[in-house]
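Quick start: read one record
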Amino acid sequence: MNIALIGYGKMGHMIEQIARERGHNIVSIIDVDNQQDFESPEFASADVAIEFTSPTAAYGNYLRAWKAGVKVVSGSTGWKTDHEADVRRMCSDEGKTLFWASNFSIGVAIFSAVNRYLAKIMNGFPQYDVRMEETHHIHKLDAPSGTAITLAEEIVDDLDRKTSWVKGLQLKADGTQEGTNECAATELPIESIRRDEVPGIHTIVYDSEADSITITHDAHSRKGFALGAVLAAEYTKDHEGLLTIGDMFKF
């Protein structure tokens, strides 16, 4: 399969390594200094482009890839607030293809399935309140993480006593903090911590007066995310529309 890379940071380099190990060709690599290559024949020869950039660049990258007739796999977060409706319309009505996930880790996909199941169980046990915590490296710009938001939205969908998530306490990379986990009973707070070079830790806690139940996904490196992105590209090559992890893994 021919793969183009959009974004060539640490994640892009790891995706390149894993894609080559799995026998794929990297036909184009686009970063901030060669945006003109979106219009190159090399980029147009890609079956799928894998995009890991920034919230401000992602949507424009989708448009330029689609203009070249290239399907997109993307792990960029933060673009949905302004552009989700347009992306859905283009994928449903205009024949575009985007496989998007806030996290491509196979372990996170399994963790997400456990999260949904546990939330449904907890509907029968109102004595347990729930909160979330996510920890990432100091270079991560968004808080809460896209993965944390996705997990929180799953809880809100499956736990009747929660109607929304809110940004909780934030412990920043410079040691300062702001916000609070205090919120309305119907709200789910997400605490965000930025420290060191942590690839990503997501923890969900159900706490009662008697005891607590905790589930955690702790990424050891970015390799799991990169492998998942390549697996998504392999899936996307033969599928169309707006695709998600739930399409690829039937838990």
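Residues 25 and 176 are 45 Å apart (CA to CA).
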